[in-house]
Amino acid sequence: MNVDSIESIISKAEAMSNQHGKKLTPTRKQVLIAMLKSDKALSAYELADSVKKEFDRSIPTMSVYRILDVLMELKLVHKMSIVNKYVACSHITCDHKHSFARFLVCNNCHKVKEIMTNGSTVKILQGNIEELGFKLLNKQLELNCLCHECAG
């Protein structure tokens, strides 16, 4: 990702943060930038290492987890439960609302691609869930995959 793209995303992320009464602090920005520069999901430990390498700043892992909680609350970051790692939202700069994200997660290298699902698919899935006596708590869907490089 080029510098202009990252600056544009950070600018939008700051505006989103301000709208929700939160501040995108320098440390939160650094964690988000580290995520934007990665093409794969990262653990809190990997993010702490990335920030150390990129910005020469040590952040305790517990602080990274707190930062990730804020970034998830702002919908700037998603947690990939399937690999217990985090990825920056690929739709931060979009102006329209996203209702249902699907993630293709490589089981081997943890590369993640975010794709959106249309409304009718979501309604059918929610109907099926309710018919079976369940309530959907999280609309995030993670698909365990192998990327082309790993499937090789």
> By CATH's scheme, which homologous superfamily applies?
Winged helix-like DNA-binding domain superfamily/Winged helix DNA-binding domain
H/I helix tally = 6
CATH-assigned fold name: Arc Repressor Mutant, subunit A
CATH class descriptor name: Mainly Alpha
Helix percentage: 40-55%
User: For this entry, what is the oligomeric state of its chains?
Assistant: single chain
SSE string: HHHHEEEEHEH
Summing up helix and strand content along with how strands pair, one would put the structural category as: alpha+beta
> From the coordinates shown, what is the CATH architecture?
Orthogonal Bundle
Count structural domains.
Answer: 1
Report the major sheet.
3 strands, mixed
Strand order of the largest sheet: 4-3-5
The Cα radius of gyration reads: 16 Å
Proportion of beta-strand residues:
15-25%
Distance between the termini: 25 Å
Low-confidence sequence ranges: none
Global outline: globular
Report on the architecture of this protein.
The chain has about 150 residues and is of the alpha+beta class. The protein has a single domain (about 5-150), classed as Winged helix-like DNA-binding domain superfamily/Winged helix DNA-binding domain (Arc Repressor Mutant, subunit A, Orthogonal Bundle), CATH 1.10.10.10. The chain has 6 helices and 5 strands, in the order H-H-H-H-E-E-E-E-H-E-H. Strands 4-3-5 form a 3-stranded mixed β-sheet, with no helix packed on it. Helix 2 packs across helix 4 (about 60-75) and helix 3 packs across helix 4 (about 60-75). The two termini are about 25 Å apart.
